[in-house]
Write a structure and sequence with these properties.
Layout (H helix, E strand, L loop, with lengths): L3 E4 L3 H12 L4 E4 L14 E3 H8 L4 H7 L1 E3 L1 E6 L2 E7 L11 E3 L2 H13 L4 E4 L4 E4 L4 E4 L2 E4 L3 E3 L6 H5 L4 E16 L8 E6 L8 E7 L3 E8 L7 H12 L5 E15 L3 E2 L2 E3 L5 E2 L7 H20 L6 H28 L4 H13 L4 H4 L133 E3 L12 E6 L2 E6 L8 E3 L34
Parallel strand pairs: 1-2, 1-12, 2-8, 5-14, 12-19
Antiparallel strand pairs: 3-7, 4-7, 5-6, 9-10, 10-11, 13-16, 13-17, 14-15, 15-16, 17-20, 18-19, 21-24, 22-23
């Protein structure tokens, strides 16, 4: 497959290229800048499912480890705390709900993965002038033809407009002053704090996020004519940190927008990230939704490009991610209407809700400081098979998760890999437990030694293996000095569909199950142990060589060869 062209080497473009490489698809990653801008926090809040996507390309664990984990969001009105929100986890995810790490550092980590990935060709100083629906990419120096193009070039509209894509929405008059400061604020390192109408920013809001290395990101909502001189900025910071010494690391001012492209797919071109949608910053839905775009686009391009699916699969990208963008805009627009009421009626309602929320628990649910990012549900996707018994109930309450159903992302669960037989080794060439129900390997070809014997006790072996020992030899009686086998063998059921599960002795001697025949019926025999053993159901063993000897007290002594393919089952 020819390389896919990805335009824009921001986090969304980086993720797209890495995910394509994961599917074995080469890509060319173009960016007009001469190199990486390692400055400023910018998009800092990474959601759990985004970390999971990055983990699939080898970056999620490092981003989570370097970032600041926070699980609580506190909301204040004036100088009083209204409530705090702890985020739900329906399963047991390996990642926290949110991790704060600067976009600059996140891009560096993704760059490290790109440098180690031969299928990604990153080209700086490559300005794209035009992208055609047929996959033609015209550069300032040359031209490329690609089977698919993913446009992750940011909010600039030149390439999008040349494709004939509208970008409707609105821009807000208020601006945000951002400051990254390094300061010691005890007790603030694991919490996000949101302030309505604080005395040091009356009539507007302030948002404070913890970041690594004792750095805090502060966002002030300010009017268009606000004084942003260095002295005024210092006064704003001092109102929060007091007399503590601080270091101003980075500052910026931005105006936020709420816009969405009318088409996310034009021919063989897919739009992703800020090139497809812009949302206000409350709720951390910008970068997080862009990474979800990248994940959705990458696997569909791989399937269509390799002939595993038809062209119609690409259209489902527009259907699914456009619906997700409209949901994000609806959520963030409702937040902005609460933060900056557009008319007198909504301003009066906001004042009433905030006043009642101090003591009224029901009013606190109406306080909208931003519904934080969450994975979108594809209940209406053409790829989702509906289930009348589990219809989607709509957007769940804030902080809750939708009920599992078609199109809803399943919660993470932890899978505990349990040693099925309790031996000291995982199933593999070094495991000496012959009764392991997962045993699909051949036993090792060397006899056990004191360091590789079947039991886990520390006593030395009481005897050494004989010269004629083989991997199919039965357990040697008394090999482990601390294991005391009984004198009699336990009886087995004559029913070929039932057998006794090999038990463990006090020294954790791992016993071996042996099949044998008696009177035309295949039954099993286990090595001796004093513990009581249970009966478990399994299938009859395949035909094989068996040898039977009789005794007054037990079934046969060891057989010469164990039939291949006998996989005991533990219930």
């Amino acid at each position: 497959m020819d390389p896919v062209v990805v335009v824009g080497a921001g986090p969304v473009g980086q993720t797209t290229a890495l995910l394509l490489a994961k599917w074995g698809v080469p890509s060319v990653l173009l960016d007009r800048r001469p190199g990486r801008d390692v400055v400023g926090s910018r998009a800092i809040c990474q959601q759990r499912d985004v970390l999971d996507v990055w983990a699939s390309v080898g970056a999620g664990e490092q981003i989570a480890a370097e970032g600041v984990t926070w699980t609580t969001a506190r909301t204040f009105h004036g100088d009083r705390e209204l409530f705090d929100q702890t985020f739900a986890d329906a399963g047991r995810s390996p990642f926290p709900p949110f991790v704060n790490l600067s976009q600059a550092r996140t891009e560096e980590i993704l760059d490290e993965r790109i440098a180690a990935e031969p299928l990604v060709d990153l080209r700086w100083d490559s300005e794209v002038l035009e992208v055609g629906p047929d996959g033609t990419v015209r550069l300032a120096r040359g031209e490329l033809r690609a089977p698919f193009v993913v446009l992750c070039s940011g909010s600039g509209g030149g390439l999008r407009e040349r494709l004939g894509v509208a970008f409707e929405g609105r821009s807000f008059d208020d601006r945000f002053l951002i400051c990254d400061i390094r300061v010691d604020l005890p007790g603030w390192a694991t919490e996000r704090r949101f302030f309505f109408d604080p005395v040091w920013n009356p009539g507007r809001q302030v948002l404070i996020h913890p970041c690594p290395d004792s750095t805090f990101r502060i966002d002030w909502q300010v009017p268009p004519d606000a004084d942003l001189s260095p002295e005024a900025v210092d006064a704003r910071i001092r109102a929060i940190v007091g007399d503590r010494p601080y270091e101003l690391v980075w500052t910026s001012v931005y105006r936020f927008h709420s816009r969405c492209a009318d088409r996310f797919r034009v021919g063989r071109v897919l739009l992703a990230g800020d090139a497809a949608h812009l949302v206000s910053p409350f709720g951390a839905r910008g970068l997080n939704s862009g990474v979800a775009d990248a994940e959705n686009a990458a696997w569909k391009i791989a399937h269509v490009g390799r002939g595993w699916a038809g062209e119609g699969l690409l259209e489902s990208y527009h259907h699914e991610r456009h619906a997700a963008a409209r949901e994000n805009i609806a959520v963030t627009t409702a937040t902005m209407d609460f933060l900056v009421p557009p008319d007198a009626a909504r301003a009066a309602r906001r004042a009433d809700v905030l006043a009642r929320a101090v003591d009224d628990l029901s009013a606190r649910a109406e306080v909208d400081s931003g519904r934080l990012a969450e994975p979108f549900w594809y209940a209406d996707s053409p790829l989702t098979t509906p289930d009348p018994t589990r219809s989607f109930a709509g957007r769940p309450p804030r902080g809750a998760l939708p009920a599992p159903g078609p199109g809803v992302l399943l919660p993470d669960v932890s899978v505990r890999l349990r040693r099925p037989c309790g031996c000291g080794s995982w199933p593999g060439p070094g495991c000496w437990c012959w009764s392991c129900p997962l045993r699909t390997w051949r036993p090792p070809t060397v006899p056990p030694t004191p360091s590789t014997r079947r039991c886990r006790c520390t006593a030395p072996p009481s005897s050494t293996p004989t010269a004629d020992w083989s991997p199919h030899s039965p357990p040697v009686r008394g090999r482990c000095g601390s294991c005391v086998p009984t004198r009699t063998w336990p009886r087995c059921s004559p029913d070929p569909t039932r057998r006794r599960w090999p038990p463990r002795c006090a020294a954790r001697w791992e016993t071996a199950a042996r099949w044998e025949t008696s009177e035309g019926e295949r039954v099993c025999r286990t090595t001796p142990c004093r513990e009581r053993i249970g009966v478990h159901r399994t299938t009859a063993p395949p035909p094989g060589p068996y040898r039977t000897t009789r005794s007054d007290h037990h079934r046969s002594r060891p057989i010469e060869e164990e039939p291949d393919g006998v996989l005991p089952q533990r219930r």
